[in-house]
Amino acid sequence: MIPSALILPRQTLSAQAFLRLSTVKFALQPSKSRYLSVKRTSGQLISPCGLQVQQLGCYRLVHISSGPAMAKSKFEYVRQFETDDPCLPNCWVVVRIDGKAFHKFTDVHHYMKPNDERGLSLMTRAAQTVMSEFNEIVLAYGQSDEYSFVFHKNCKLYNRRASKIMTNVVSLFASSFTLYWPRFFNSQELQYPPSFDGRVVLYPSDENLKDYLSWRQADCHINNLYNTCFWKLVQEKGLSPNRAAERLKGTLSSDKNELLFAEFNINYNNLPELYRKGAVIIRPKGTIDDASPSLDKSINNHTRGHDARASKKPMSVVLHTDIIGKQFWEDNPHILNPKI
Ligand SMILES: Nc1nc2c(ncn2[C@@H]2O[C@H](COP(=O)(O)OP(=O)(O)O)[C@@H](O)[C@H]2O)c(=O)[nH]1
Ligand SMILES: [Mg+2]
């Protein structure tokens, strides 16, 4: 009969001893307890054969190795339900995060309308934290309550597992947003924890990627022009929100530009570029990690991130510039091709 536990006298075990019990491997370390007691794992037969004794001492069980021969519990099969979600090779990986119900969050926290410089700068600070954690990000673009992070098309981060990449980005972004809140809002307290959704989108060509970024910047422009007119009508002309919306219904960009100029003496093109163009974060040439594995597997993630964030190196540059035209890409060819 096989005992459910083996009680071994202390003198029989050693510092380097490995007790091989059937397919289960136990590593032993010194212990103050008098005996080593090895319990039977469920369903596994334990036999004391293979016990190697090199040195006298007293040891306790500290670790069950997880090598290929490791014993499996009867529950192990549930791992088969986990699915892998690798990003297609050779595609740009874009992670976009977006604030959850930020119409309410910005109201509760008294954001300036239509743009709050503190809120937008806080978003960029959180995005910079994400960029300093992941060197594989070649560019980030943000506007309103969203940020897009572009990972190099050859990046090997987390074996390109989409959910692993995306959840790491979104959770670090959210925690950084919360951490840095007081720096931007001073004594105005955070009323509740903000959250963000995240998604991964793959773009197979440079053109597709540029068009994606152009789409987000065009969205920034369209919304900002509309919101600037809307809030001017409400705040300075005293229109109700419904009336202001009526007034702007069906208008073209040129109509809105004209409205701002004629009624408020505002030249839209003179408004801050942060509001009109959003924020583009890029890295200085030579600092993009385009293909190498994201980290030495032996180094723990936290150490890596901590080091990167603690570093004083200028890891990123924030621009408020046009990324729709060719000029930006001609001026910064290293973004798409770090080898240049
Ligand atoms: N007042 C103000 N509101 C902002 C600012 N940035 C973003 N928002 C709000 O955040 C919303 C973001 O849009 P969207 O993600 O579609 O809406 P959500 O589902 O409520 O997060 C905008 O509609 C605004 O209400 C800002 O700088 N100032
Ligand atoms: Mg949102």
From TrEMBL:
Pfam families: Thg1, Thg1C. One of its GO terms (molecular function) is magnesium ion binding. It is an enzyme of class 2 (transferase). Its cofactor is Mg(2+). Residues 75-204 form the tRNAHis guanylyltransferase catalytic domain. The keyword Nucleotidyltransferase applies. GO terms for biological process: tRNA modification. Its EC number is 2.7.7.79. Residues 207-324 form the Thg1 C-terminal domain. The keyword Transferase applies. It catalyses: a 5'-end ribonucleotide-tRNA(His) + GTP + ATP + H2O = a 5'-end phospho-guanosine-ribonucleotide-tRNA(His) + AMP + 2 diphosphate + H(+). Residues 293-312 are annotated as: Disordered. Keywords: GTP-binding, Magnesium, Metal-binding, Nucleotide-binding, Nucleotidyltransferase, Transferase, tRNA processing. Homotetramer. Interacts with MFN1 and MFN2; functions as a guanyl-nucleotide exchange factor/GEF for MFN2 and also probably MFN1. Adds a GMP to the 5'-end of tRNA(His) after transcription and RNase P cleavage. This step is essential for proper recognition of the tRNA and for the fidelity of protein synthesis. Also functions as a guanyl-nucleotide exchange factor/GEF for the MFN1 and MFN2 mitofusins thereby regulating mitochondrial fusion. By regulating both mitochondrial dynamics and bioenergetic function, it contributes to cell survival following oxidative stress. Belongs to the tRNA(His) guanylyltransferase family. PANTHER family: TRNA(HIS) GUANYLYLTRANSFERASE-RELATED. This is Probable tRNA(His) guanylyltransferase. It comes from Elysia chlorotica (Eastern emerald elysia).
